[in-house]
Fold:
Amino acid sequence: MRVLVVEDDPSLLKVICDIFEQESFLVDRAETGDEGYYMAEQAIYDLMILDVMLPGIDGVDIVRKLRSQSNRVPIILVTARDAVEDRVAGLDAGADDYVAKPFAVSELLARTRAVLRRHGTIDQEGALVWNSIRLMPAVRDASHRERMLQLTATEYKLLEFFICNKDQILTREQIFDRVWGFDSGSATSAVDVYIHHLRKKLTGTGADQALRTVRGIGYLFKGEPYV
Structure:
């Protein structure tokens, strides 16, 4: 899964990024509100860790702007321990939870798991599940009825993104930025090529038919098994 961390304190930014990288998240980072907001607008993240006090747009305004655009990314605010008004404003704006500085690693991870469960992203065991397909993000394994799916790293990232965003149309640009990255030298045509390979490997699981092409836009992965 992919997380965006927005924090202007370089030492704390590094600590938070290290925490999520150790948990096998792909991590992007920003040190200003404007940069963080721009990156979050791309709608390619499964989670956002967002400081309230930032240069430029503050964290609460970022939450408010994203929610007004129907961006449903789970957001955990990072606030000063005594900033009750900031926490209330952030939650009212649409943030999912908050942690107060200083915080324990175990608390941040526990709140992350709780938020992702509430959003239906993971189950109690931390797995991503669609019908009989099960993905374990911690080890990046995918299986169907306990049989391992032999996916490449890119194919796994594609399937993970689709399952995390069931019933949402994803543009080719979104998919490319999420899987290949903003700075990749590849072309967006790679999206169609790799989705073709992924569909072939998903034959017989039902997911190959749930993954539908939206002509001229991108792809849609149905939340319920295809019938």
